[in-house]
Write a structure and sequence with these properties.
single chain, mainly alpha, Methane Monooxygenase Hydroxylase, Chain G, domain 1
């Protein structure tokens, strides 16, 4: 196995950015899934493909860690950040799979609160993709695009983890209101069980995005 002795590896940042862009793809598919008349099976299959692509990026990242002698920051933190990004995609894919398998789109409409949670996920994905790109551009040895100021240190991403936490709280509120609706008697018991499982995966995805932000904040504190 060939080992790299370079103190900074831009490839790590590229992989973080690619994984985050893939999460944008996943949340966009969730939005499509919730639209009236959506081809649920096709969207679910595309979500499975996106999840598979994220797995490949994660494996590529792990292989890179194992073949690099000196990493940009602690190996454990690189593993953690890659794993947290992959966790988000797992929950997003699970939502699509459950909606399809349970036939929930046969309902007249999905609850408003479920749409609100998907919207939160879209916004979390957008700021996460932006943060990972800022991290990539700020990496040593990477020349930023013309007109883009190079970020100095991970502390420059503080606005990201603050906003991601705020969005997670917004997602929690929507989740609680969704539970109120599910147990209000509006739906039959079997439908409640199905939608509750989907709601739990949506909430888990919101939480997983926050875990990504928390991991990046932890790295920033250790590296500052």
């Amino acid at each position: 196995m060939k080992f790299s002795l370079r103190p900074s590896e831009a490839a790590f940042y590229d992989m973080f950015s690619r994984a985050a862009q893939n999460l944008l793809r996943g949340t966009a598919l969730l939005t499509e899934l919730a639209l009236p008349g959506a081809d649920v099976q096709a969207v679910s299959e595309r979500l499975a493909e996106a999840e598979h692509d994220n797995d490949e990026i994660t494996h590529e990242l792990y292989n890179k860690i194992n073949s690099t002698f000196i990493t940009p920051f602690d190996r454990e933190d690189i593993y953690a950040l890659g794993s947290r990004l992959d966790d988000v995609m797992d929950h997003i894919e699970a939502v699509g799979s459950l909606v399809y398998l349970y036939g929930l789109t046969k309902l007249p409409s999905l609850p408003r609160e479920m749409h609100e949670m998907v919207d939160v996920l879209n916004r979390q994905a957008a700021i996460t993709a932006e943060a990972m790109e800022r991290l990539r551009v700020g990496a040593p040895g990477v020349k930023p695009p013309k007109g883009v100021k190079k970020m100095k240190g991970l502390r420059g991403l503080e606005d990201y983890w603050v906003e991601c936490n705020r969005l997670e709280n917004e997602g929690d509120r929507a989740y609680r209101m969704l539970l109120v609706r599910l147990f209000s008697g509006e739906y039959d018991a079997l439908t409640v069980l199905k939608m509750k499982e989907v709601a739990d995966e949506l909430e888990a995805a919101c939480d997983a995005f926050e875990h990504v932000a928390n991991t990046l904040e932890t790295i920033a504190v250790k590296e500052s």
